[in-house]
Amino acid sequence: MEIQKNNLEKMCIHRTNYKGHELIDIRVFFKANDGKWYPTRKGITFSVSLANEVINGIREESKIYKE
Questions:
Q1: Mean residue pLDDT across the chain
Q2: What is the dihedral of CA 23, 6, 60, 44, to 10 degrees?
């Protein structure tokens, strides 16, 4: 899945496997002068087993609180 941040950056979310561990990687990519997209160091990788907790945390933090 890709989420466009702006004209020069996008976030890519994908499932990967590293040394037998199932992971989810959310990484910022930038568009270079050659028109290709390259990954940056900005991102996070976590175990698939934590995905629901991460999703719930994002939902909780994205709520609009009324004062």
A1: 93
A2: 30
